[in-house]
Amino acid sequence: MRKYLIDTGVLTAYLTARPRIVSLIVSLIEPYILNNEAATSILIYGEIDEYHRAKPDYQQRKQVLLSLLNQILPLTPNIAIMERYAAIRRSLRPPHGPGLIGDIDTVIAATALEHNLTMITADSDFARVSGLKLLQVDRSWLKS
């Protein structure tokens, strides 16, 4: 059963496996991956793919990412998720709420909510989404 949605920064850090990151991020999320408890959004795949396209070893990185998606379920937006997206956007829009977050992040948050997943992220913007369960990772963990 999937319990966690791994966000872009955390998943990218896991894939790059720099020495400091290995001890922090890998020890955090690898058990969830190995126990089939991890999911992500197909939008996160797109964000990571865009980031990797600037690297000289892009094709190798792409294959590693695609291979990882055999263990981490990539969730896709559907009508229920997009309705949650609309509700979240409305609740964050002033004067109703504290301010909008990016559209992609809003769809990712809606995905986590719709699937009742705890989101593993270093992005503090997600804390503004009411009802979203977060496992907040210190942003410094993502840097080598």
Word description of this protein:
With 144 residues, the protein is of the alpha/beta class. The protein has a domain at 4-75 and 116-142. The protein has helices at 8-16, 19-34, 42-52, 58-68, 79-92, 103-114; strands at residues 4-6, 38-41, 73-75, 118-121, 134-136. Strands 3-2-1-4-5 form a five-stranded parallel sheet. Helix 1 (8-16) packs across helix 2 and helix 5 (79-92) packs across helix 6 (103-114). The longest helix has 16 residues, at 19-34. It starts with a strand and ends in an 8-residue tail after the last strand. The mean pLDDT is 92.
Helix content: 40-55%
Compute the number of helices.
Answer: 6
- What form results from the Cα inertia axes? globular
What is the string of helix and strand elements? EHHEHHEHHEE
Largest sheet: 5 strands, parallel
Strand order within the widest sheet?
Answer: 3-2-1-4-5
Distance between the termini: 32 Å
Strand fraction equals: 5-15%
Count of strand segments: 5
Low-pLDDT stretches: none
Taking all Cα atoms into account, the compactness measure Rg is: 15 Å
Question: Average pLDDT across residues?
Answer: 92
Look at the helices and sheets and give the structural class: alpha/beta
Helix-strand layout with pairing:
Layout (H helix, E strand, L loop, with lengths): L3 E3 L1 H9 L2 H16 L3 E4 H11 L5 H11 L4 E3 L3 H14 L10 H12 L3 E4 L12 E3 L8
Parallel strand pairs: 1-2, 1-4, 2-3, 4-5
Helix pairs in contact: 1-2, 3-4, 5-6
Summarize this entry quickly.
The protein is an alpha/beta fold. The protein is built from six helices and five strands.
